[in-house]
Write a structure and sequence with these properties.
The protein is of the alpha/beta class. The protein folds into 2 domains: 132 residues, Aspartate Aminotransferase, domain 1 (Alpha-Beta Complex); 238 residues, Aspartate Aminotransferase, domain 2. Helix content is 38%, strand content 18%. The protein is built from 11 helices and 17 strands. The strands form 4 sheets. The protein has a 7-stranded mixed sheet with strand order 4-12-11-10-7-5-6, with helices on both faces. Strand 13 and strand 14 form a beta hairpin. Helix 2 packs antiparallel against helix 9, helix 7 packs parallel to helix 8 and helix 9 crosses helix 11. The longest helix has 39 residues. The relative contact order is 0.16.
């Protein structure tokens, strides 16, 4: 398997050929409940009829132009995203990591414009994950990702919820930007408190630090609001989005507020593929679904899923806590989540493991009530097995 491909992924052996909604079908016809959604990407699920129709139509017209020329979807998508995020301007990218890279360049350039070009460093949070390109990798806290690629950009990390520590670092170092995830994805579906998010906003205001929110995983409605930070009433200066924004096609966006919207001069940043007509057409389908009440479904199914997981926590000692919000949930266990995830996959429920002891559960936004019930039943059965047979899972401290 994987002949001719660099060995960077530990893939499952099954080959998936089709899907419908929150279900994936392998080449043998076996159906899997997909509660991973391509790692929080496939918001409209698989085989979405409206998306398929729009993309077929667009492929028959024009797929690529470059950003030297205009197409009819750029401004509608950009203005809609600005309205949903309370931002003023968008730069389209191909991925979340590229959106972070754009945010870092924007912060650096803003410091030049302000007459403080010495402000070149960044501050991020312990447990954060921001991507694998060199700048984004610099911000990513886990040493296993960074070690083989040192030296990287200078970054100082602060513990989540340590308001005093964050204030001390921002006042002393005067960085270009603070970059945080309102809900840490790879860090174990760890939601930052509203109080900490507000404190970070105030500290950035005090120190002239640009506040960047990485909402690549938590944004675009996954928590029931378009941005997770909106639950806390906090607006960043810059926000990075990607994952579900084009319903599965590679697309990201870096959005800036009015004060930073005109920071880049022509030619100072660019991309060949970013914001092309095909991905923007897909984004219009996704955004139309958001307008059509999709986030109400996220809220309802998220509440159902969380209630079911919390009930399992009351019934099973193996469960340590339920984390997250909306359809971005984590089930923290007293055992290794990896072995539990593998057994769930054998039972044809797709989730994954993050931070060692957390099952990441991020289904498509279109998941049904019956599918949530079915997933909860499988999770309960598997956790009961591991609780009754602790030797089948690695003990986790």
């Amino acid at each position: 398997m994987d002949e001719g491909v660099m060995k960077t992924y530990a893939r499952a052996e099954e080959v998936f050929a089709a899907g419908h909604g929150a279900v994936l079908v392998d080449q043998q016809g076996h159906e899997y409940l997909d509660f991973l959604a391509g790692i929080a990407v496939s918001a409209l699920g698989h085989g979405h009829a409206g998306l398929a129709e729009a993309l077929r139509d667009q492929v028959g017209k024009v797929v690529h132009l470059s950003n030297l020329f205009r197409h009819q979807y750029t401004e509608p998508v950009a203005t809609k995203l600005c309205a949903l995020t309370e931002m003023a301007a968008a730069f389209f990218t191909n991925s979340g990591a590229e959106s972070i890279e754009c945010a870092l360049k924007l912060a650096r350039k803003a410091m030049h414009v302000r007459g403080t070009p010495e402000r070149t460093s960044f501050v991020a949070l312990e447990g954060g994950f921001h991507g694998r390109t060199m700048g984004a990798l610099s911000l990513t806290h886990n040493p296993k990702y960074r070690a083989p690629f040192q030296p990287l950009q200078h970054v100082t990390w602060v513990a989540p919820e340590d308001t005093a520590g964050l204030g001390a670092v921002l006042h002393e170092q005067r960085p270009a930007a603070l970059v945080i995830e309102p809900i840490q994805g790879e860090g174990g579906i760890r939601e930052l408190s509203p109080a900490f998010l507000r404190a970070a906003r105030n500290l950035c205001n005090e120190t002239g630090t640009i506040l960047v929110h990485d909402e690549i995983q938590s944004g675009c409605g996954r928590t029931g609001k378009f941005l997770a930070a909106q639950h806390a009433g906090v607006a960043p200066d810059v926000v990075a989005l990607a994952k579900p924004i084009a319903a599965g096609l590679p697309m990201g966006v870096c959005l800036a507020n009015a004060a930073l919207a005109d920071t880049f001069a022509k030619g100072e940043h660019g991309t060949t593929f970013g914001g092309g007509p095909l991905v923007c057409r897909a984004a219009t389908v996704f955004l139309d679904a958001v307008d059509g009440g999709l986030l109400d479904d996220v809220t309802a199914r998220g509440a159902q899923l969380r209630a079911g997981l919390e009930q399992l926590g009351r019934e099973l000692a193996i469960v340590r806590e339920v984390r997250g919000r909306g359809l971005m949930l984590g089930l923290r266990l007293h055992h290794s989540a990896t072995e539990v995830q593998k057994e769930l996959y054998r039972q044809r429920l797709m989730v994954n493991c993050t931070a060692g002891d957390v099952l990441r559960i991020v289904p498509p936004f279109v998941v049904t009530e019956a599918q949530v019930d079915a997933a909860l039943l499988r999770i309960g059965d598997v956790l009961t097995h591991f609780q009754q047979n602790p030797a089948s899972a690695e003990a986790h401290p």
